[in-house]
Automatic annotation (TrEMBL):
Pfam families membership: adh_short
Alphabetical list of SUPFAM superfamilies matching this protein: NAD(P)-binding Rossmann-fold domains
Cross-referenced InterPro entries: NAD(P)-bd_dom_sf, Sc_DH/Rdtase_CS, SDR_fam
Name of the molecule in the record: NAD(P)-binding protein
Gene3D superfamilies membership: NAD(P)-binding Rossmann-like Domain
């Protein structure tokens, strides 16, 4: 008799990294509850221009794609700004499935019609409330509501050390380590990282693991939209989105982590895990067969930040032999965290 399929809940599953993670969990055979505000029955995606035109960016379409990939997708329209709504959905999931194996918190918002870059004293509290309401407070709330269900699920595996433990995955970013975009953003991402670490201390005795996932530059619908609108270069600092990761790349990383044995996953519980670095460790690629470099690798930093600065100061291009031979060498976190990339100093 085959084991019951594992059950995952993914917030922010209607688009972006959350959607990519939901789809890859589906491809791995999970029952995936796709949670988000964008629904065919209620509030839909706010911006249907260009890239989004014709795309059904709802929890229903995400659930359908999960099922097409071999999993079982269940759409769950939910107002993630409402504590009661979050508790209701998680209670319904556990009542129906009798288990919860993976919780992914990926929902995130930024203020409408306001650049994410700027000096904190000019942005008003709407920037803080947007990025750290859904992006931090409600992540804490969701983890709080899900923890007892994850603990009960862990009890069923008993002393089976080969069985994967229930897992909480918080989607963060390199902004948790180094200045990115603005003050409120960095504080919120650092808070997410610390939340994962501190939860791991309390959940360890119950055999529930946590992880913080760092995607790189990702080709989300929102970022592709900015390219179409002509606002991407200013927002990103002229980064080449064509060289970015797919949302599914993060999903492939999570599937590997969620498949580790209890001993292996618990030993790294609470850690920050970089998607690109996991790809090297577990030998998987992005959906196009590529393996993007980690943002803290010289292979990424040199062409995107170091070489442009050298060319600006020298007034001539960096030699091709130098560009073609940058090693995939990771900067220690202590060095990476010491400040923003050079051209961002004046932003």
């Amino acid at each position: 008799m085959s084991a019951a399929p594992r059950v995952a809940v993914v917030t922010g599953a209607s688009r972006g990294i959350g959607r990519g993670i939901a789809l890859e969990l589906g491809a791995a055979g999970y029952a995936v509850y796709c949670i988000g505000r964008s629904s065919r029955t209620g509030r839909a995606y706010d911006d249907q221009r260009a890239v989004a035109d014709g795309l059904d960016l709802t929890v229903e379409s995400a659930a359908e794609e999960v099922s097409r990939k071999g999993g079982r997708g269940i759409p769950c329209p939910c107002d993630l700004s409402s504590d009661d709504d979050i508790e209701r959905v998680l209670d319904e999931v556990y009542e129906k499935e009798g288990r919860l194996d993976v919780l992914v918190c990926s929902a995130f918002t930024t203020p409408a019609k306001q650049s994410i870059r700027g000096e904190f004293w000019t942005q008003g509290m709407q920037m803080w409330d947007a990025v750290n309401g859904i992006g931090l407070r409600q992540v804490y709330m969701t983890c709080q509501a899900a923890a007892p269900k994850l603990i009960e699920t862990a009890k069923r595996t008993g002393n089976d050390q080969s069985a994967p433990p229930p897992l909480i995955c918080l989607v963060s970013s390199f902004g948790g380590k180094s200045y990115t975009f603005n003050v409120a953003y960095g504080v919120g991402k650092a808070g997410i990282d610390r939340l994962s670490t501190d939860m791991s201390y309390q959940l360890k005795r119950y055999n529930v693991a946590t992880t913080t996932l760092y995607p790189g530059l990702v080709r989300t619908e929102a970022n592709l939209q900015m390219v179409e609108d002509g606002t991407w270069d200013e927002a990103s600092g002229n980064l080449d989105l064509d060289q970015g990761e797919s949302p599914e790349f993060s999903g492939r990383a999570l599937v590997r982590l969620a498949s580790l044995s209890k001993d292996d996953m618990m030993s790294r519980s609470g850690n920050v895990e970089v998607v690109a670095e996991l790809a090297k460790e577990f030998d998987f690629t992005d959906i196009d067969g590529s393996r993007p470099a980690s943002i803290r690798s010289l292979k990424y930093l040199a062409p995107n930040f170091i070489f442009p600065q050298i060319e600006k100061e020298a007034g001539k291009p960096v030699p091709s032999w130098m560009r073609d031979n940058v090693p995939d060498l990771l900067l220690p976190w202590s060095v990476f965290s010491s400040g923003p990339p050079p051209e961002m100093d004046s932003r």
